[in-house]
């Protein structure tokens, strides 16, 4: 009796290779997990126990999502330790044996840092991993990240492992010293509020009652000085006219007395 729900096939003996074998073909629609079992039957129809093998078809390994890579582009050299993160197409876990994530110089292809999967953080029920990068090892320039085969293991049935990342253009970044923006200091100049002191023309300029024929008017100091000066010139002119008339009158009297 076979495994419930299974299809029984005869196993053929290959005399040339001295082994029993059976070719099994799967259709394109047979994606999923399959159980293949076999047992031996002797000439007395006595059989052994079944030995089974699980086979997965059409099951993809976890792939890194390029859009999830962080950081990319320019990185400030002032960081000491910077966490890099990457996300896979499905939930992943740590592999049983150690694998490496390596970072290389784009200019020389030399290895700058190697990170073991023992130092990688695998989050529970997550497709994201994180690993620390020592930025003090990097000089200014361009770099790329590579993954060993199997740095992440899928949590799905049969636990397929991630493929090797060997594309030097897949995850790139640039290290440079980015100057800090200048600090703008706050202006500490104190201002005086004029909310309680209304500043109007009448409060800034005092009235002068001597400016215009004893009429009480509010005039600016410049106008007042101009009118005063005009008044002085008018008085001087009047005195000159009076003096001239007085002198002419005296001269006429003198002439009358002398000649008439």
Topology, element by element:
Layout: E1 12-14, E2 19-21, E3 32-38, E4 51-57, E5 73-76, E6 81-87, E7 92-93, E8 100-105, E9 111-116, E10 121-122, E11 128-134, E12 141-147, E13 153-154, E14 172-176, H1 201-204, H2 221-259
Parallel strand pairs: 5-14
Antiparallel strand pairs: 1-2, 3-4, 6-11, 7-13, 8-9, 8-12, 10-11, 12-14
Concise structural overview:
The protein is of the alpha+beta class and 260 residues long. It has two helices and 14 strands.
Please provide a written account of the structure.
The chain has 260 residues and is an alpha+beta fold. Helices cover 17% and strands 26% of the residues. The chain contains two helices and 14 strands. It is rod-shaped. About 12% of the residues have low confidence.
**What structural class do the secondary elements suggest?**
alpha+beta
Largest beta sheet, briefly? 5 strands, mixed
Encode the helix/strand succession as letters.
EEEEEEEEEEEEEEHH
Question: Cα distance, first to last residue?
Answer: 181 Å
Return the average pLDDT rounded to an integer: 78
The largest sheet has its strands arranged as 5-14-12-8-9
What structural keywords apply?
single chain; 260 residues; alpha+beta; 5-stranded mixed sheet; 3-stranded antiparallel sheet; 14 strands; rod-shaped
